[in-house]
Amino acid sequence: MLRYLLRLRLFFISFVITCTVGILFLSDETNVRTATRSPGAQEINVPNKKLVFVGIMTTVNFLRTRAVAGVETFLSVLPHGVEYMYFVPEGALARKNFSVPMNVYELKGVDDTYPPQKKALAMFYYMWKIHGNGFDWFVRLDDDAYLNAVELLKLLRSLNPNEPHLIGQGATGRKEEAGSLFLGPGDNYCMGGTGIIFSRKTVAEVAPNVFECANNLRTFHEDIELCRCVKQFSSTNLSCTKSSETKKLFLHNYGGEQAFTGDLEAMQDLNRAITIHPLKKAELFYKIHAYITRLNMRRIHQEMAAVKRDTKAILTLMSGKPASYEDMKRITYVQLLPDGTNFAPWELIADRRIYAAGPQVDFPRRGLDHRSKTGIDAAIFQLVSSMDSLPNLKRRHLKRTIRFRRLHYAYRRYSTLNGVDYILDVVLDYKKIGRKFKKDQKKDFSVRRHSYVRVPFLGLRIWPKFRNQTEVKRKETVNFILPLKGRIDTFSRFLRNWDSTCKVDHVTGTRPCTLTIVFYHDAKASTLDGWNEKTAVEHLTSLYNNRADSPDIRLVTVSDKKFSRGEALEIGAAAAMDDDLLFLIDVDIMVSPEAVDHVRFNTELGKQVWFPITFSEYDPSFAGVDDDESSFGDERGFWRKYGFGIVGIYKKDLVAVGGFDRTISGWGKEDVDLFSRIAGTKSLTAMRAPDPGLVHVFHKINCDPQLAKDQLKMCLGTKAIALASVKRLHELIRSQNVS
Fold it and tell me: Which residues in 239-253 are b (16+ Cβ under 10 Å) and which e?
């Protein structure tokens, strides 16, 4: 009997894997662009069957805004068998130049007069006239609505297009309009803004009669007139659907201009919506599209994780080892038990704060950042959607749908092998479905649940194009820019390091780097050897220049002026070309050849700026450790997480964000100001990560009391952090070896 159960389970799991993989590959291959095709895209042979025609009503004014946004978002990923057309008034095409290709049809004898009753009826008629026999379903849509074609097909494939259907969000009008909309008793209409779906039979019966409807208008609402026309001429006196579920499928936000401008993760019904309305600003189309794409990716990731688990189950069952019923039942579930040292400690998330403990934790309590909030929202979405979509017999018996209300607290930990684990304590609302309930049965109630969720990591992917890009980037010249005031001995060490890092190519006789030094000269200052500082800097520079006719090192001297790091970097960048790659550096930084490669690979023109996190040494007199350059232990130094002064950026991008603030003089703040502006732009991404190839060598910090209050506070904070680790300071205080 057990052997029979094993074979039966093996067959079932193999069938699930085959179907799941087939669906994943099929859904990827059948997404053919309608308006534009990506370069290199291959034609796919699919059956010549057309399912849905989407007619979108727009005006001349929105052809270059909302229409373009629609073509570049949801219309660009329509599945095979779904086509669209924008309908505009006569003469609109002659007045507009389109920035992207799109399908547009002029309605003869129609203008942009509002309200557009005749325009809506004319579009309905021409949809039937042009494509009446070519599609099973027809969708009427406004230009400020987003269509999720995947959810649309889920609904329509369960219905018969040869039967009369009029599907949308049903409405009866405002209270003050009661009795003036010419609706019969119990009648309603489909709201036009959120979209209306017609079956082929409905269109065939009604469309030939729209001219009679256009001559018999009773209201100023185009959606009411269209639905009145359908009711009058359909064979079944068809009205709009009355299901309460349509409010979620045809989603309308009553926020007006502010609709969908907030956090989309908090809007639980977006994942099931067929249409999303209204999107008054064109940029909202891109925001919604990015969110819907993320939702689809999450679903695919979950399916991929399930396939991997089932594959593991098959391999276990095929190994020939005896398996009990409990083993088979347990094998497909995620194991949350520790499996070694690859787990980080649990963190507590409560009251919008994160509480953490451990040797690598800098702050035991910190605010809930956007990245963590997004991760928790995704875990909650995964939990609620799985509970609400699975065939839960008890939930169906209760006739409830599940909605997330609030999070009490959560635990989180990271596994380098498996993903992110969450323990969620949430309150869920069980909402009624339908209207029939017993007298003693509550319609809605809340339940507190303690749930475990794992968000798995994706597998490793290697992109073949990266190999070609690597060779190009490896040859790109990195232009160092170094502000300098005093510190001649440190400057000499920097030059030695720079010379060994950027070695001369013996074939070409050139270096892969250049160095621009902006030296603030004080005529009264001299070195310990009695040299004039300017003479010493000029002498050191000449020693390391590669060729006299084409020097790799350029010295710019600024005399008798108060030092400003931001101004110095601006002066150094002034001579660079727009497409030159700049590396803004400090004299205390030791740079490895690998770090120079990181500058090349992590900086992209017009896309990404590189803000590496440097390793900063503690004061050797306090730290009490050997000067081992290969060590990055907690006792030797720390990662300078809040230092933004070392930057890889292209000259063009630096100019685009406004460069450095030259009004900031003295120590600090100019780097934070630049980082804030870059992080706040939509076009540039601030790439930030530790770089072992950048080491900040310890030096005494002297904070000028004349600095601005905020700069002085930052300087003193950095001075305190750089003394030694907390553990070492505690040991010194306990032993009373510190004065």
Answer: bbbeeeebbbbbbbb
- Residue 590: the pLDDT is 94
User: Which domains can be identified in the chain, with CATH numbers?
Assistant: 48-243 (3.90.550.50), 347-456 (3.10.450), 475-735 (3.90.550.10)
Cβ neighbours of 200 (radius 10 Å)? 23
* Residue 88 vs residues 57, 74, 126, 190: alpha-carbon distances, Å: 7, 20, 12, 22
Tell me how many degrees the CA angle 646-647-650 measures, rounded to the nearest 5: 155
Identify the residue whose tokens are 């798995």: 456
Cβ atoms of 58 and 87 within 8 Å: the answer is yes
Q: How many residues does the chain have?
A: 739
Cα distances (Å, whole numbers) of residue 731 to 31, 635, 724: 64, 12, 11
Q: What is the DSSP string of 75-128?
A: GGGPBTTEEEEEEEETTHHHH---SS---EEEETT----SS-HHHHHHHHHHHH
Residues 6+ apart with CB under 8 A from 436: none
pLDDT range class, residue 423, cuts 50, 70, 90:
very high
* Strand locations in 560-656 (E): 581-584, 589-591, 608-617, 637-639, 647-650
In contact, 101 and 35? CB cutoff 8 Å: yes
In terms of C-beta density within 10 A (0-12 exposed, 13-18 middle, 19 or more buried), how is residue 176 classed?
exposed
- 8 Å CB contact between 72 and 100: yes
Q: Is the pLDDT of residue 536 over 70?
A: yes
In 3D space, the residue among 91, 88, 119 whose CA is nearest the CA of residue 103 turns out to be: 88
What is the model's pLDDT at position 12? 42
Nearest 5°: phi and psi at 358? 145, 165
Nearest to 118 by CA among 237, 221, 238, 240: 221
Beta strand spans in 382-524 (E): 400-415, 419-432, 445-456, 478-484, 513-521
Say whether pTM exceeds 0.70: no
Pairing of strands 478-484, 581-584: parallel
Confidence of residue 33 (pLDDT cuts 50, 70, 90): very low
Residue 67 CB-half CA count within 13 A: 26
Q: Which residues lie below 8 Å from residue 186, measured CB to CB, with a gap of 6+?
A: none
For 26, the enclosing helix (H) or strand (E) is helix 2-29
What are the structure tokens assigned to 606, written together? 């017009």
